[in-house]
Amino acid sequence: KPGTELKGKTLGIHAFGHVGKRVARIAKGFGMKLFAFDPFIPDDEISKEGVTPLKSVEELYEKCQYVSLHIPANEKTIKSINFALMSRMPQNAVLVNTARKEIINEDDLLKMFAEREDFKYISDIAPDCAAEIAEKYAGRYFFTPKKMGAQTAEANINAGLAAARQIVNFFEKGDRTFQVNK
């Protein structure tokens, strides 16, 4: 079955931090129409990146054929990507999760697969229900075997350097910017 071009397609970026901004830059190269929702980033900061800010997460899912997730996993976001949001996506929707698997409500993901034959899901970590998805919904998903977020030699070096800089800044300046044991 032939694929589809990204040019002219709509991409919704759910959270517009460092990774979301990089995704936007890459997507521009494919000629995609870009939208973002992030309640913590001012609209003008999103706009200056050539991305249209949206006022609600619901609008993002309604407007975009592709939605790329970049939200953290915390008490407010765990299982927040649910059927109510996913079902708002237009025909031939693709949900891309390179955030955390915990943000997906997996029961609702299975319901979405069952009710929408056009829906596809891509993730850099397999959900707990991966075997059921593989058995029932062939060709509509892609998972990597493990979380790939920082699995490069460069990422490990950069993380070590950042930690060393933080230790030096703490002793030299009392900087507690990334303190985790408050």
UniProtKB/TrEMBL annotation:
UniProt keyword Aminoacyl-tRNA synthetase present: no
UniProt xrefs under InterPro entries: D-2-hydroxyacid_DH, D-isomer_DH_NAD-bd, NAD(P)-bd_dom_sf
Keyword entries, A-Z: NAD, Oxidoreductase
Coiled-coil stretches: none
UniProt GO molecular function: NAD binding; oxidoreductase activity
Record-annotated D-isomer specific 2-hydroxyacid dehydrogenase NAD-binding domain positions: 2-125
Keyword Endoplasmic reticulum among UniProt keywords: no
Lineage top rank: taxon: Bacteria
Family of the protein in this entry: Belongs to the D-isomer specific 2-hydroxyacid dehydrogenase family.
Name the UniProt record assigns to this protein: 3-phosphoglycerate dehydrogenase
Organism this protein belongs to: Caldithrix abyssi
